[in-house]
Structure formats: C-alpha cells, structure tokens
Amino acid sequence: MSIVIRDVREHELDSVLALNNAAGVTILPLDHSQLRFFYDHAAYFRVAEVDGTLAGFLIALDQDSPYESSNYLWFRSHYPAFVYIDRVVIASAQRGAGVGRVFYADVTSFAETHAPLLTCEVFLEPRNDVAVLFHGTYGFQEVGQQVMIETGLRVSLLAKELASYPWVRSTYLDKPDGRLPDLPWLATRKRKPAVRLATGT
C-alpha cells in the first residue's frame, strides 16, 4: 500500500466535502463556504492518497487565522503562537491502515518549523476514547476543557510541545531574513492575508 501526503488541489474540494460530511458524529459538518474558508486561510491543508485514491485530509491553522471556532479562539486567548488541527478525516475504507499516523507525523514536522505548540481538541461528549488514546500516544496533554458554544458538547483541549521549534527559531527565524529553507514541505500554503478579528475573549 502506497500513502502519499500532498497539498489539496482546488478541484478536489467537493470530494473533501463529501469525505467530511460522511465522517460521522465526531466531525462537525461543513458546507461549501466553510470549506472554501479553509482552502483560503489554512496554513496546512493536505490530503492523503492511498494507491492513487483520495483517502483523507487534515486541516490546520496558525494563530493568525480569522477563524471563529470557539476551540480555536480558546487556544488563541491562551497562547501567542501555535498550529491548531481543526479536523482530520479518514475515509471509512482506509481507517486502521495507518493514514492517521502518517498525517500526524507530517503535520508535526510542519508545525515544528512554525510554532512551539501543536494543538487540537477531542470530544468528551460523546467520549471518543480512541481519539483520546491516539493523541496521548503522540505526546498531547490536556490543557483545558470547555463546552463548545456551537454544539453544547464538552471537549478536551490538547497541546503538544514541539521540541525542535526553539532550534528552528534560533537557527532560521531569528536571523535577519527570518526565512526557512526553500523546501516544499516547510512552506505554508499560499493564502489570502489574514485579518485579525476581535474575539471578545
């Protein structure tokens, strides 16, 4: 089995939307405009191909996104810099095949060059023990809980310290040009300039 992780392409958004909305109760549904927002603003929006077939996607945003999710805003009110995993979806036929682990390895490598923390949340209502255990094995720790205003459901807010980031910052980001090497896997996606919105938090 061959797994390839790459940036999403615009013509694939309908397929991504179908994957998202078939994922079940642990993934919030999206409409076309919400998915387009992610395409325009996500720092990381990559898909997985398994033997040439679209098998999943992962979307993550940095601290400068104009995103209004209550979970994202919780992290923005507590931390100055982070990469936030909003959602990861794997097609049902490919679950258990290691696609999620490949995604987390890839997004961690990306995040380590951009922020000191990788963050996300998992549902506690209904409790998703598989997700809790999965994130625990990747070094995430609970840093808070809240009830989402969008759903009324309680979530566990998780963060993972990225050990390589201080070295990346001192070696590259704190230099006069502040640039990472020009390599595709280090680059954020081209996107519209972020507009910081008032959050009231």
UniProtKB/TrEMBL annotation:
GO molecular function: acyltransferase activity, transferring groups other than amino-acyl groups
Pfam family, one: Acetyltransf_1
Source organism, top-level taxon: Bacteria
Residues covered by the N-acetyltransferase domain: 3-160
UniProt name for this protein: N-acetyltransferase domain-containing protein
Biological source species: Chiayiivirga flava
